[in-house]
């Protein structure tokens, strides 16, 4: 059993995961800053203001996604820029006041960097991150009792890292969205092309089936009924025989029509009858003797190959009956190890090769199409006054 596909993490999934981490970090840092302030500055006049501003900042941060203040990747129907900027301005202003009252709240700036990058356009977000970084450096210097170079280097380094990570992930998400769009468009175009090709192939198959079966049966019926009409008064017995033969052909044509509707195998191949038996039973019409020869040891053939060879034989005999004026036709089915060959020869009038190339009707092109679909070849040799030999060669294993 095939294992189900493993879930694939996209760049937007990574961004959502990073957003969750940043949200959790913001509240942890905010809570730690409040606890640090209460432990070190209990009972001071600014304490109620710090607590109130901390609660206000937490509420603003929570209400941000609810009012559509932040965008997610991939971007879908972004809210109005004014609402986003207003929300971010309130968050930053509240945080700035907190940092002025208690510089230890500057540690909350890192999640705010990410929030700014998710809320504003890239250039505006970079400018805001730079201003927040300057403010963080100033707050850290206020807390320090002595000059520390790390206070000047660490905040800009963290801000640059956060910006680089977000910009990289956003670009990766955009590229992935473009790739997915291209794949979806290509898949739709491929599906449309396959549908068109399938429709054309089915039309060609049906046209060949109708030509090789129903059209040939109708042609035979017409010839027989015309012959019966000419001999009806002078030779009633012969006329009735023609009518009975036409009736039999009509029954076979009806069976062919039903087969086309149900897309079944040719009726001559049903009930376990092999290709050799079906070819042996073919008839070219009144006045034409059909002989069948089998060479080599028969091997099982694919259904498509048997059906194609039978249809080619039927089409070739129809051409013999209608155009060749022949008295005999010979069918030879040869199994030659790696291929099967069907030869149809007649002693009729023949024709020039230029006529064969130009194509008088649908019969020869249909035969070539059938053989080509099975990876085989169809050759025709004919000389005026010396008959025609048609040879269909089909490999027993399909070629690539």
From TrEMBL:
Top enzyme class: transferase
Extent of the signal sequence: none
Catalytic activity reported: ATP + protein L-histidine = ADP + protein N-phospho-L-histidine
UniProt-listed PROSITE patterns: HIS_KIN
An MF annotation (GO) of this entry: protein dimerization activity
Record keywords: 4Fe-4S, Cytoplasm, Iron, Iron-sulfur, Kinase, Metal-binding, Transferase, Two-component regulatory system
EC number(s) stated in the UniProt entry for this protein: 2.7.13.3
Keyword Cell inner membrane: no
InterPro entries the UniProt entry points to: HATPase_C_sf, HATPase_dom, His_kinase_dom, Sensor_HK_TwoCompSys, Sig_transdc_His_kin-like_C, Sig_transdc_His_kin_sub3_dim/P, Sig_transdc_His_kinase_ChrS
GO cellular component entries: cytoplasm; membrane
Record-given protein name: Oxygen sensor histidine kinase NreB
Gene source species: Streptomyces lavendulae subsp. lavendulae
